[in-house]
Description:
Elements: E1 12-20, H1 28-41, E2 49-56, H2 59-63, E3 69-72, H3 79-86
Parallel strand pairs: 1-2, 2-3
Amino acid sequence: AREALQLPTDKKLILFGAFKIADPRKGFRYLKEALQILKQTYPGQTENTGLLLFGKTDPELLKADLGFRQYHLGKLSSTEKLVQVYN
């Protein structure tokens, strides 16, 4: 699945998705807090971790430094693609 989506096979990926990622009801702010805690708790050990996002993304989010390499899939238009992402 990672090869088909052109994602790294040698990294741990944290998945977050929503129809609109920046919607406050979806909890992205909590994800940002959790990522900061993760980075502080395990300094130097998170280089092998990335953040995989899907859904409508605001340009500010694309530029934000969350401390992890980001991989954006955009909006997923099919159930098959969504299943592939979860795999």
